[in-house]
């Protein structure tokens, strides 16, 4: 009598499905996942893995950890990173060494692939979680990541 | 608001007035059904739904309708112009016509004919002609496939809807909707007819959902395979007619269910019997409960394939329905109904 067995099974599975969605319906008010975006601009926090743009963090003494090794520039598949570097005398050791002048990042070209961040040996660049990146002038999308007057954190190159 | 509507004075002016009132009420009601659907869908999917236009998004579908009215009516060059333009009116008129026979309260009924149920079944099958016309005249393969599926589906499920209602007619002994409600003063039919009535109700709800071409039976407009199905080539107000007709049809299926199984405007245990105009709230309350049930189906079950759809109807619903009629006949004959 698989005919009636099928009917019984059919009804049972349909009711199981309906009870699942019914529970979701009743509990919706507490765990709705919608963000009321423009209204909650102040409080909205993006999740950690969100890729907004590449940034270079600086500490309070205006120091970063970029050695100017150019690995990120080589890793970038579409040339969104350009490093302008120079050999200068290091005031501490008195030796000549490679230093970055400008770490240029073209946000307008970046595909957010993250290869540059993977490639960086000193973790000098990271993902920022900002998301309101649209501008009216596209030259604003070309950014210099190292702040003016910044220098490398001592001890990074050792 | 109580309108004592009687077609006693056979007055053209009265008829036009009633028609205008019904059109007004139900096109607005249709819009709010669309809104309800969107809200319910959102709640089922852990979203919020429309909440920007008006308080709680109440005016969202009004805004949508205004947008649709202001849109250009496009169409295909090779379409059969006359049929193409006729189709949406066919669909919307047939669904609005069905509304005339419902008794919303004891007095609030536009047209009380003695073949009410028969009229409803007949009218609800006319809508499919509009869908077939639309699909055929659009000259678009997706529209044509959608329309043909609709034909298959409606012809199959029409049987189940009809037979499950016939099962209940065995109990009432009349096809007139006002008398069907009169009979239920001694217990709603789903109680009077107990087991066969419950089976009939289940079959009715399944077949009714299929009749309105809603998910899980929405092969007619299966978005993932057919674009928009039979109304692929319609835009603006003509599309809005199809859309509105779908929602009014849903209301109609729920309203027939309410009238035939759940006592129409009668209150449970006669608690508000002394205030007859409250009937409309009971009627609408029960109807919306059934509408909600159909929305619950829609947002729970995945779409069926065409062969599954036909298997369900011809191998399961139809034989069960025929058995059920015999069972109901026996119960009525032996006087085993439950009378309160
Ligand atoms: S995320 Fe990818 S595309 Fe963007 S700068 Fe880094 S390597 Fe280039
Ligand atoms: S950001 Fe990292 S990879 Fe790029 S130049 Fe600086 S240290 Fe090298």
Automatic annotation (TrEMBL), chain A:
It comes from the Bacteria. GO terms for cellular component: membrane. One of its GO terms (molecular function) is oxidoreductase activity, acting on NAD(P)H. The keyword Manganese does not apply. It holds the Pfam family Fer4_7. Keywords: 4Fe-4S, Cell membrane, Iron, Iron-sulfur, Membrane, Metal-binding, NAD, Quinone, Repeat, Translocase, Ubiquinone. The keyword Iron applies. Coiled coil: none annotated. Residues 57-86, 101-130 form the 4Fe-4S ferredoxin-type domain. This is NADH-quinone oxidoreductase subunit I.
TrEMBL record, chain B:
GO terms for cellular component: plasma membrane. One of its GO terms (molecular function) is quinone binding. Signal peptide: none annotated. The chain crosses the membrane at residues 12-36, 86-105, 117-137, 157-175, 187-207, 239-263, 275-296, 316-336. Keywords: Cell membrane, Membrane, NAD, Quinone, Translocase, Transmembrane, Transmembrane helix, Ubiquinone. It is found in: Cell membrane; Membrane. GO terms for biological process: aerobic respiration. It catalyses: a quinone + NADH + 5 H(+)(in) = a quinol + NAD(+) + 4 H(+)(out). Its EC number is 7.1.1.-. Its main location: membrane. NDH-1 is composed of 14 different subunits. Subunits NuoA, H, J, K, L, M, N constitute the membrane sector of the complex. Belongs to the complex I subunit 1 family. This is NADH-quinone oxidoreductase subunit H. It comes from Lutibacter oricola. The gene is nuoH.
